[in-house]
Every structure is written in C-alpha cells, then in structure tokens.
C-alpha cells in the first residue's frame, strides 16, 4: 500500500493532499485535496475506512463546487464541510477573474457514506423567510 500512487488509491490525477483528518468514531481517514499544479481545480474531499486502501468521494459535487473547511465530529461518524460555488469571468483588461460564493453546509455520515443534511440558501429561506 505504501508504494501506491494517489490515483491507485482513488484520488484523481492532478490532485495533491491539502489536509488529512481522522474520525475515531468511524475509524476513517478524510483527505482534503487541492490542485497539485497551476491549473485551478475545485477542492475535493475523499474518505476511506482504515481497513480499506481505496478512497471514495464524499458526495458528487458539481464541477465548479469546492468542498472546503472539513471538520470531523470527535465522537460520532460525521463529517461537516462547506461548499463554495466558483465562477470565472474576464475583466475589462482581458484578465481572468475568479470568485466564489457560499453554496451550502453539508453533513455527511462516514459509516454509511451518505449525506445526512445539507443547508443552502433555499432551505434557509424556507426556515427563515425574513432572510
């Protein structure tokens, strides 16, 4: 296992490790990945149980959605993370501009591999019409 490439472990080409977290409750590793080169790529989260050597994607984020700021619960098999939606435009001088807006706050179960909850602008508006 130690001589395997990131790709062989389930991490797509062009990505490198940004942060590694451990969930004692799920007995799982969570890795936050980022672009390993100069080309922009959205940050992605992957996880694997200790007895596995293959990482699995946390959810199925869209192409311009980053999974950022992961946090593992200390006593439950839960992962919480923010999602950001990125956009690109060209300014008056022809320079590419990159920006991102908050998309959602997500709760993911590391034992079942299922998203438990997602809070976004639409769900906030339903719960709090004054917003």
Q: Number of folding domains? A: 1
Number of distinct helices: 1
Spans of at least 5 consecutive residues whose pLDDT stays below 50 are none
β-sheet strand percentage: over 45%
Order of helices and strands: EEEEEEEEH
Q: Helix proportion of residues, in percent?
A: under 10%
Give the class from helix and strand content and strand pairing: mainly beta
The total of beta strands comes to 8
Shape: flat
* Amino- and carboxy-terminal Cα gap: 50 Å
Describe the biggest sheet? 4 strands, antiparallel
Write the layout of secondary structure elements.
Blueprint: E1 15-23, E2 28-35, E3 44-49, E4 56-57, E5 65-72, E6 78-90, E7 96-109, E8 114-120, H1 121-127
Structure report:
The protein has one domain. It contains 1 helix and 8 strands, in the order ββββββββα. The mean pLDDT is about 90. The protein is mainly β and about 130 residues long. The strands form 2 sheets. A 4-stranded antiparallel β-sheet has the order 1-2-3-4, with no helix packed on it. It has a 4-stranded antiparallel β-sheet with strand order 5-6-7-8.
Features of the shown structure:
131 residues; mainly beta; 4-stranded antiparallel β-sheet; 1 helix; 8 strands; 5% helix
Summarize the structure.
The protein is mainly beta and 131 residues long. 5% of the residues lie in helices and 51% in strands.
